[in-house]
Amino acid sequence: MSERDKELGDALAGLSVPEPPEQFWESLRVRCAEAFGTDTSPGEDLSSRASAPDAMAPEATPHLNGLAASSRPAPPASVEVQHQIRRPRVPRPRRREGATRPSGKPAPRRRRRTYGVLRRAPRVMTVAIGAVMVTLAGSLFTGQVRRAEAVAVVPFSLECGRDGNAPIDNGQRLVVAGVWTQDSGEADKFVKVLEAFKKRSGAGVIYTYVPTVRDMAPVLRKRIENGCPPDVAFLSQPGLFRDLARDQSLRPIEGVAADEVNRNYTPAGREFGVVDDVLYGVWFKAANKSMIWYRPDAFEHAELPKSWEALKDAAARIHDQGLVAPFSLAGADGWTLTDWFENVYLATAGPEMYDQLAHHAIPWTDPSVKQALTTLAEIFGQPDWLAGGTEGALQTRYERSVEDVLGPSPKAAMVYEGDFVAGKARELAKGSEGNVTPRSFDFPAIRGSKPLVVGGDVAVSLTKNEAGTKLIGFLATPNAAEVWAREGGFLSPNKSLDPSVYPDDVTRNWARALTQDQTWRFDLSDVQPSGFGATEGMWQLFQDFLRNPRDVDGVAEKLEDKARAVWGPPLPVGSPQKSGTRPKQKNQGTGK
Amino acid sequence: VTGGSYTEVIALRRSRDAGGSATDFHDLLARAKAGDAEAAGELLWPYKTRVWRIAYSIVQHLHDTEDVVQDTFLRAFRGVKGIKAPDQKVLEVWLVTITINCARDTVIRRPRTPSGIWAPDSPDDRSPPLADQTALNLRLQELLRDLPLHQRSALILVDMYGYTRQDAAKMLGIPRGTVDSSLFAARTKLRKGLESDHV
Rounded CA gap, A515 and A499, in Å? Predict the structure, then answer.
């Protein structure tokens, strides 16, 4: 190994790897012990194992924690069987001149060309064409697209200049960073919005995407640190949004978008883009998180539940049928459990109490919280209603929960989550013919009150690029929202958008509720300071609650302890806050 | 793992990741083959950190890593009764091979995180803390992500975890020469990527 390789090895060996929580190992231990007890007899011959890969096939595995089941069997641990994973390519025998062909006739001798230039010509042309293609591909990759009308779509890079950020033509080219990828089809729809902007402004746009929401924070911070942030970014993390605004990494947009925002958004919708009374962002895309997705065949002869009681009745009916479990619950992803609670709490306690709880104006031991937990336990406390039982639910991740319902091997009839389930359902539909068309109904009303919990993406400006600020202004108009709304899979908080442009009644009704009603609320856990709202706080405690739904008092007390550690004691109950706003506290939203 | 030479770092990592004792190996294996779950656990659990790290290095996503590790151990526990492992090394190669297969499948069929939801804030996330993510760390991770899967896997096994090229070839199910060429290509790309940062 050369010195340079050693240096590289040192750097690679020093890469940090996050550790899993001990809870993960504990639960895996249990699973493994079960797996060990249910499989092959001792002393099994390896050859029989090798010929019976089904023993290791995903179908043979029990309901697992979002298991990305591999189609490959486990290789036997034998020194002789080392190449079972991928069969080595069998070299094709080269036919020599004069060798006997299968027909028995000798192959005709090739005519030897004597014109060297001509002989080399095809090779020269191949090289030339290849060079041109490589150059084109390279320019596309780095975003250096010179076609004025193109909107380039490239992966987001930490490196300056790789997405074409550095050279900008007289301020008329901009880089926009978002989380909508081409895999989901969302990038293509968003590009249409950017193309509409290009037609109006003449600015060339490069859309650069991060693969997952959680990647946005580190890569964006790095680009800011490197001095080359994208001109516009879509932020899905309120803590990141607030931190960047307070770090002065974001540019106020009062001058360019305030009029449009005031005209087209409700006060609550406007608040999404405000930090410390300054407008920094435009809430462009909303996510409805009050939906239950279902298999149509499970409700073939039954009405869709409109109330909590009807939902429980439906669950009991599906359970009695014995074909699939009523629900698939993604308990391994704590955020899905907090989303359940938020819907139940908003419906049972009402918007004002929801606001107070969101701002810790009331403690988590409040009777309203215990009431909501007790209501939630009516479903969480029925292991027979959950695919895989309680333990199975705790091992199930979001993606698997959707697959359990909408995939080719259904294990459950219903799954709760937001409108983004449609994206996962589309992915599933690509994979198999056995998948069903996804359908959903609204989260049912509880004692006559129907909840609407939302999330969303906020567009912010990070540079002085004039085209970027123009884009922010455009995104606040109904014209921008209309482009994507017509395509489907999009919910706009823009109240000036004509609801008739939505392709279906369901989305139209959500949009109406979002822009006209005052009862919707923003995802409660997401507006918490991060020390409480996520893994170590609400997520984990709601997993504890799923494990033991009868312990309402215990969980409420633990929630209060955690909340108190971050927020301090509850504020005296005063005037309720508007939705989407936070009281200005010292530790608000910083998570530090 | 910080500081120290490459060899020291690898030695430290190996000793820390896999704590199994060779003397007990045959006894444990015999008991595991006879259906003793505890013995199977003692045989396989010492590799849990190693399996986790290799899986994470390849898939570079926490939840995917959990899936890969879970899948790996479930398969290993199911398969351990039928293995013929003359020594601990063979067992390790077998386990890492399963890890690589599961990780490879996960990368190929990687699910997308839904957009439009408000994800947890980064500092509280279970990603490495931002303070630890030095520029080099981030850059290396990015460069690793950009590598084709086979090059990435070869680099991780040989350069990060100190396996021999022969072992890496077994684990990846490819000829030794292909490991060599993959390593060469991966190292070249990484070096170029890092050098271009300094230009």
Answer: 10
- What's the pLDDT at A248? 92
User: Would you say the pTM of this structure is higher than 0.80?
Assistant: no
The conformation of residue B120, written as its DSSP 8-state character, comes to: P
The answer to whether A241 touches A458, Cβ cutoff 8 Å, is yes
Written as six digits, the tokens of A541 are 């405690």
Find, among A418, A400, A419, the residue nearest to A410 by Cα.
A400
The encoded tokens of residue A144 equal: 């250096």
CA distance B75 to B83: 12
Contact: A530, B172; criterion CB under 8 Å: no
Burial code (b: 16+ CB inside 10 Å, e: under 16) for A428-459 equals bbeeeeebbebebbbbbbbeeebbbbbbbbbb
Residue with tokens 């392709």: A503
- C-alpha A513/C-alpha A534 separation (Å) is 27
Cα–Cα dist A213/B122, whole Å: 10
Residues in chain A: 592
CA distances (Å), origin B102, targets A105, A118, A270, B54: 50, 51, 46, 11
Which residue from A193, A220, A219 is spatially nearest to A205, judged by alpha carbons? A193
- Any A CB within 8 A of B31 CB: no
How is residue B35 annotated by DSSP? T
CB A85 within 8 A of CB B172: yes
- Residue A414 in contact with residue A294, Cβ under 8 Å? yes
| Cβ proximity of A89 and B111 under 8 Å | no
Burial A55-74 (b: 16+ CB within 10 A, else e): bbeeeebebbbbbbbbebbb
**Nearest by CB: A420 against B117, B130, B175:** B117
Q: What is the ipTM of this complex?
A: 0.78
Residues in chain A with CB shorter than 8 Å from the CB of B194 are 8, 11
Shortest distance between the Cα of B183 and any Cα of chain A, in A, equals: 10
pLDDT digits (tens, 9 = 90+) for A270-327: 988 999 899 999 999 998 899 999 988 888 888 899 999 999 999 999 998 888 999 9
Give the confidence band of A515 by pLDDT, cuts at 50, 70, 90. confident
Which single residue is written with the structure tokens 């014109």? A115
